[in-house]
Design a protein that fits this description.
This protein has 187 residues and is mainly α. The protein is 60% helix and 2% strand. The chain is built from ten helices and two strands; from the N terminus they run αααααααββααα. Strands 1-2 form a two-stranded antiparallel ribbon. α1 packs across α4.
Length: 187
């Protein structure tokens, strides 16, 4: 949610800079991250200005539509745990280090705000939907192994909430039967 918010804000800023005469920035960003850009463009008014709250909301949702950005972000999360958490004996073996939790509404309050207002309604429960929670199978497998290894090495129980995270697939028809069964067993 934080990354989606940051990227939506980046796109709104580039739009505004483009309209202020800094040509090329918006077009470049639009090519690099089209899902977010399309979302921001949906909030454009006839005069070329933006409804900022709508631009943030649509840009935010656009981040979640981008398989490339999500894959890149998940890879960075895995790298963070490999390079920063595992080697740090205190962080790795401290039970509270992984005890943070936050509700979908709490994430919206923390991350989805512009001009002092939430651009995603709290009551929408948007971030509690599978599409916004899912990770790739490889990411799931990494963290499953990470927590099992950590439990063996430190005695700290594996994180049970991992089993609740849905898996991301490009298209439902591409889900292998064995993985579908595993996903259903986890639920």
């Amino acid at each position: 949610a934080n990354e989606a918010d940051a990227k939506a804000y980046e796109h709104v800023c580039m739009w505004e800079l483009d309209k202020a005469g800094e040509k090329g920035l918006w077009d470049s960003l639009k090519q690099q991250e089209p899902y977010i850009a399309k979302g921001v463009e949906k909030a454009a008014k006839a005069d070329g200005s933006l409804d900022t709250a709508k631009a943030m909301k649509y840009g935010f949702k656009g981040w979640y539509k981008s398989p490339l950005l999500r894959k890149y972000y998940e890879k960075n999360m895995v790298n963070n745990y490999e390079q920063k958490i595992k080697p740090n004996k205190f962080a790795y073996s401290h039970p509270a280090g992984f005890g943070m939790s936050c509700s979908a509404g709490g994430l919206i309050l923390r991350a989805c705000e512009i001009d002092g207002k939430n651009y995603i309604p709290l009551e929408s429960n948007l971030l509690a939907r599978d599409h916004y929670l899912s990770v790739e199978k490889s990411t799931f497998d990494y963290f499953d192994k990470f927590f099992k290894d950590r439990e063996k090495e430190t005695g700290i129980p594996a994180d049970k909430s991992l089993k609740e995270i849905p898996l991301t697939y490009p298209k439902k028809k591409e889900i292998p039967v064995a993985l579908l069964k595993a996903k259903l067993e986890r639920r």
